[in-house]
Structures
1.
Amino acid sequence: MQRLSSKDLVTILDLSREDIETIFETTRSQKPLARAHELPHSHPNRTLACIFHKPSLRTRVSFEVAAQQLGAGSLYITDREIGLGSRESVEDVARVMSRFVDAIMIRTFDHEHVERLARAATVPVINGLTDLTHPCQILADVFTIEESLGGIEGRKVVYVGDGNNIAHSWINAAALLDFPLVICTPRDYEPDAGIIEKARAKGNLDLTISHDPKAAVEGADVVYTDVWASMGQEEEAAERARIFQDYQVNEALVARAKDEAIVLHCLPAHRGSEITDEVIDGPHSRVFDEAENRLHVQRAILHHLMA
Ligand code: CP
Ligand code: NVA
């Protein structure tokens, strides 16, 4: 079993372009077998711990199912049990968990907690979303684009909405892969400057920051959006709904993209806010293929990281 260049997946920048190709090759070969319930149990007697400090449908279910499909077990752990950084230090949690399980997937608020967990753990640590990034989501998104459009190279990807964890992981993906990325947000909701700086240092970033959704989506191959208020920002939802109202992905906006453009959304969607029913249920949408691909891409990630 081929290993990746990194022990962990904390951000997409932990991976090389070759690692991404390795993950996608495995995804392509496993997906039809898994769909036919014929995937061999390559990882028996292994256990994945899934730590969740925020709600989840896709990440939780797809990681647990992916582990089972590989023949491994999985655990669902909330902060009530472990008190990460409060009941005991992040590092002690990492050291103890490393004696029990073969990999740790964590969804939490503070990105630094995941970095510290990864540094102190001897087993792989996978970021299942922090306030800063969501690498597994964007790897599944890139895979979906490759499936739908035959490749991401040279494809114009336009993200319309909040400069949040999803936007940040798109910037990281663009630092490694060859495609132009436009991030279109209201003023004061741009992506984090530190994320852009680190991605630029990779030397491959073709990034445009825009505040004009109509101009941004002109000629797009992929139109992407996400919620306007992320988990933990619920109290800002009303204010954000007002500020983001011109950033809705609706039929009029999608009509400015290429005829064959696809629309993606990481979900959960607030239908009628950042995206309309007509678009999410319409002919350009690949949103539910994208959701399914979380399972297939993450199974490949586990396949290699738990090797
Ligand atoms: N897209 C995504 O991560 O969904 P969940 O929050 O349901 O896991
Ligand atoms: N930006 C969203 C993504 C959900 C998958 C959030 O953090 O809530």
Note: The radius of gyration is 19 Å.
2.
Amino acid sequence: MNKYLEEVLKNTRQKNINESEYLQAVEEVLSSIEPVISEHPEFEKLSLLERMVEPERVIMFRVPWIDDNGRIVVNRGYRIQFSSLIGPYKGGLRFDPSVNLSIMKFLGFEQIFKNALTGLPIGGAKGGSDFNPKGKSDNEIMRFCQSFMTELYRHIGQDVDVPAGDIGVGAREIGYLFGQYKRIKNAYEGGVLTGKGLEYGGSLVRKEATGYGLIYFMREMLKENDNRTLEGKRVTISGAGNVAIYAAEKALQCGAKVYAMSDSNGCIYDEEGINLDTIKKIKEEQRGRIIEYQKYHPKSKYFEHEPGSESPIWKIKTDIALPCATQNELTLESAKHLVENGVVAVGEGANMPCTEEATNYLLKNGVLVAPAKAANAGGVATSAIEMSQNSMRYYMTFEEVDRKLDNIMVNIFNSCKQSANQYNLGNNYVAGANIAAFSKLAKAMVAQGIV
Ligand code: NDP
Ligand code: 2IT
């Protein structure tokens, strides 16, 4: 590896010694931009990489709230304002007990590159809390969101930092957060959050955007490689949340068949093809568990997922695997099962769902990999379209937003392809995405001086 890259990596490891996910994300990017760094010795003099791996600002705060039994509970809140190079800080909020500084920083770091790929003016951020929404009443969720926003509001704004959803944060939570922001500020700043309800400034297609975008990217990637299509393909999708459900919906619309979906407890396999209406009913309406699918479709099979072990879903034979749950869910062991079973393509709907060893194994075995930064960027891109509509005070139709999303995903795929071609990397779109995003950010950083 190039000496400058090695030095930065070594220092980053030393400085962030306990942050394994953050270091994984940094290593993945730095290890693929070597050809660009070698072409630009001036980057070292400008300490460009040192600046890129250090967040502009890290905010951590106490979130006290009262549960339904009158007990005071204290959670920890975070907002990592990683980079404002190309626009206001932008990125989701995650409410999950696993949330810690390392996970927040990895997500914030990835977001900078993802947002750059969209071609829209948005910087990179992430936030959230170790609050566990599972099993909480609506009132508890509301009180938590209000307390969270009572601190967060002073750090955000429609031209400053614009949060949205992620794991554990959907339309319900965004509604409570927005209500509290508006109450504190006494101003209707619609563009301060995205993923809002359609009644009060949300955008059509935002709910569907990440999943739809993933399939648009997959369509382009398959077309580029031997003119393949989604028609008739076997698809397995991990997760049964926002990203997974709408990836399944678009895959079905494109003529593919979805055989398996999952949640953190296990996976459902339905030989007749997953019935998406049943999944929506269980997950969106009832906030239930995926095991309940068997009640409606007794012929389906359920495989339990032991905590900390490989997800059973990757052992199922498939043409296309879409990890849409969480980071590091697809391990080397899973990659080996997928390859054994003849997988053609893997599309990362979640952020960093494949471990580094898994990605390398897939690429080495000729599997097409759609990297998260590029393939799941449709969500944040549509968030930026929501911000535009809020500023214009004008709303687009479903078809208009969907067409823009589709164009953006085509452009993102083309950027990944062009960068991979430029550096003779074949169809390694993982490296292509990193190089395309980094090149843009590097130019912006040079242009803005020492910031
Ligand atoms: P949701 O909360 O809607 O759904 C998450 C799904 O993943 C649930 O089915 C959940 O199961 C499952 N899951 C979560 N944690 C784990 C785990 N540790 N092991 C196994 N399964 C797990 O979140 P989203 O669909 O919004 O997000 C999914 C992924 O996509 C995340 O990586 C997120 O960062 C990424 N993403 C989201 C975007 C968005 O716009 N929402 C945009 C781009 C990326 P359970 O209910 O059992 O916890
Ligand atoms: O990971 C992501 O890109 C998101 N959770 C969406 C962020 C956003 O601001 O819409």
Note: Residues 398-422 form the longest helix (25 residues).
